[in-house]
Amino acid sequence: MTSKRPHALLRLTVDLVIQTLRDGQFQVLLIRRGNEPYRGQWALPGGFVRPDEDLDAAAARELSEETGIGPRTFHLEQFAVFGAPDRDPRGRVVTVAYLAIAPNLPTPVAGSDASQAAWWPVDKILAQPEELAFDHADILRMGIERARRQLEYTTLATAFCAEEFTIGELRRVYEVVWGIPVDPRNFNRKVMRTAGFVVPTNRKRTAEAGRPAALYRKGDATTLYPPMLRSRLNQASG
Amino acid sequence: MTSKRPHALLRLTVDLVIQTLRDGQFQVLLIRRGNEPYRGQWALPGGFVRPDEDLDAAAARELSEETGIGPRTFHLEQFAVFGAPDRDPRGRVVTVAYLAIAPNLPTPVAGSDASQAAWWPVDKILAQPEELAFDHADILRMGIERARRQLEYTTLATAFCAEEFTIGELRRVYEVVWGIPVDPRNFNRKVMRTAGFVVPTNRKRTAEAGRPAALYRKGDATTLYPPMLRSRLNQASG
DNA sequence: ACAAAAGTGTTGAATCTACACCCATGC
DNA sequence: GCATGGGTGTAGATTCAACACTTTTGT
User: Fold this and answer.
1) Which of A10, A71, A181, B22 is most deeply buried (CB count within 10 A of its CB)?
2) Are residues A166 and A137 in contact, defined by beta-carbon separation less than 8 angstroms?
3) B21 or A70, higher pLDDT
């Protein structure tokens, strides 16, 4: 594997931290490995980059292979590279880590080379990182932290919602991903005052109980001014 | 170069956006290429990752090779990967981009395989991106934007300063990197109120003119709460 | 004394927090 | 009517922007 050149010839993979909200929980998609190494352990979905394939294209391909969903409104974003020389026992394999976020995906799909795919609650897998193969615990932690921070400064939260959503659903994204309560009344105004965060559709949705909520769509803005700071959010309940 | 495997064997480089403040300007270090391809054009310092070398180690090695300065108090941080299949005419070469920030470096040093090294004012090189080889204009732009954003939410500004610095010097980092004036009086208090941003040394420095300024050292904090927002900074002059 | 840069005080505007209260629907 | 979630008003605390003013040095 290591040649006599001054530089390495190596293989490149993409690994995905696919996040969603399911059953009111913050969850990630993991695959149980069917082959050595780390057979039987859990791992992030991913795979090798093809010879003439762009990195983002490789990530998008893996994403649709693993989730069984075509080119939809996914948020997909590269966030780090992991390249420790010994991170893969098969040789030098460098991986590009991607953060993928999608609205509530129905049910996990078993990939081609994987024996099993499952949604894991984030808290659960973070509590037992030894379940994860390679350095995927590190990658996962960084991907989770990335998403939590992005909620503060960007409009990323809308990526967890369906095309049309209520302000209450958007608020639940913050509450579930951060794990803290957020005051619904102040949240409403904060979202409305931030130009381009959400766009009204003039439609309403009537839920099981309570007053029907107005429906919104994602706006043009990508950054939030002022930011939605975790440390300052109030935690009142009424 | 492209084998019949389903995945690519490829080469990996690190490229560095080395930023500093020189002569009151925001500058980056560029190298004039001595070899094909792109001979004679300017490029970011960088080079191939060695077979058993960690990515961060490769970046640190290139940094000290190009600047001639040993393991000092550099800020060094991976910020993106560029892997378009055709980005390098020599074959598939993926590069990991690093942001390096250092206090005022004295004078450029010609590297081993480079014919010339020079500090460029950021504004100047951004205005003529066609001077740059490969996709280095994209990498540079992203590195600059990264630094500008990090000033808002992190204590990165201290990386532009020497070990001991005055609040005025720290303020000049913001002014020069962002290209906007910052009110000295409000800035002082804002820095002081953010716990862990700077630590007093109980020493003073007396400049050419004016009252001597207290000297500070970088603190423990890495993130700024509340952030130092560009869009909100006042632009008064007194 | 004067220029220059450091640093403090202060005031009106904007924002945030916490909560009272009203609105619209299903049962 | 009543429970439930959506949404508005508002008062006090906090923070911000703008700028007057004081402090400490070199010349």
Assistant:
1) A10
2) no
3) B21
Calculate how close chain A gets to B224, using CA atoms only, in Å.
Answer: 11
CA distance B31 to B163: 27
**What would the pLDDT profile of A150-191 be if each residue is shown by its tens digit?**
999 999 999 999 999 999 999 999 999 999 999 999 999 999
The percent of chain A in helix, strand and coil, each rounded to the nearest 5, is 30, 30, 40
Round the CA-based radius of gyration of chain B to a whole number and report it. Answer: 20
Read off the pLDDT band of A81 (50, 70, 90). Answer: very high
- A93-101 vs A75-82, strand pairing mode: antiparallel
Q: Which of B2, B52, B226 sits opposite A51 (nearest CB)?
A: B2
pLDDT of amino acid A12: 96
B:82-121 residues touching chain A, CB 8 A cutoff: 83-85, 92, 94, 96
d(CA B174, CA B184): 11
* Alpha helix (H) residue ranges in A96-227: 122-127, 136-153, 167-178, 184-193
In sequence order, the β-bridge partners of residue B33 are B114
With CA atoms as reference, the chain A residue closest to B8 would be A51
What pLDDT was estimated at residue B237?
28
